[in-house]
Amino acid sequence: MSEPLFSLKGLVKTYQNGEVNTPVLQGVDLKVEKGEFVALMGPSGSGKSTLMHILGFLDRLTSGSYLFSGRDVSQMTDDDLAHERSREVGFVFQSFNLLAKSTVIENVMLPMLYAKVPKKEREERAMNALRAVGIEHRANYVSNTISGGEKQRVAIARALVNSPSVIFADEPTGNLDTKSGEAVLAIFQDLHEKQGRTIVMVTHELEAAEFADRIVRIRDGVIESDEKNLNKRRGGYYK
Length: 239
Ligand code: ADP
Prior knowledge:
This protein has a six-stranded mixed beta sheet with strand order 6-7-8-3-9-10, sandwiched between helices. A four-stranded antiparallel beta sheet has the order 2-1-4-5, with helices on one face. It is α/β, with parallel strands linked by helices. The protein is 33% helix and 28% strand. The protein is built from seven helices and ten strands. Strand 1 (6-17) and strand 2 form a beta hairpin. Helix 3 (104-114) packs across helix 4 (119-132) and helix 4 packs across helix 5 (148-160). It binds adenosine-5'-diphosphate. Adenosine-5'-diphosphate binds at residues 15, 17, 22, 24, 42, 44-50.
């Protein structure tokens, strides 16, 4: 059998600001296989974003072990982490984080600029990603002229465009109305089911988590429960 995508054992994260230590993750054990759609739930301040940042190479663990596809992340240099981040992961945030004055397609092409992809291929891949989330008709719109739900689809297209091993979504429906939120969740479901994408979604809403296959709950920096989702919800038609 191949290695899990993520394998965490006794993972600890303590923030250190001067003399003040804030223990956040206090011994997290977790395995995620390639192709899973996992929701990470927990109350505000429980350490969800911290865990996602460590998994996504944005931050370092304090102690314990984190293997990514069998490779020991604690031994990686800052350059290695930056390299893994650009190649292996795509992020989707609650606040979309698009360049407001750039067009939709420019936003989606951006990650490929850093990956030094030729222009023609950048355009083709960006259009494919926009098509995958049903928003290709907005390709030439300036980003701040489209709706919130549309912006989040663009952010998903941008996260997809370098074909990462995993997509992390941090409260992706937090700024959306129910209908647009469900359309976004349906897109994640689609990417998972039809393209075998691995998705880790942080949310504090059970209604959102129920779109995933597995629900992991974190509380006070440890995993409180980790179960298959038996109440799977389906999103509406989004294209
Ligand atoms: P969640 O995503 O579950 O709301 P977070 O991972 O954002 O939780 O935060 C967990 C705890 O870590 C909170 O108490 C927060 O104040 C603290 N925290 C987050 N980032 C830092 C930081 N850079 N320095 C100190 N404490 C932090």
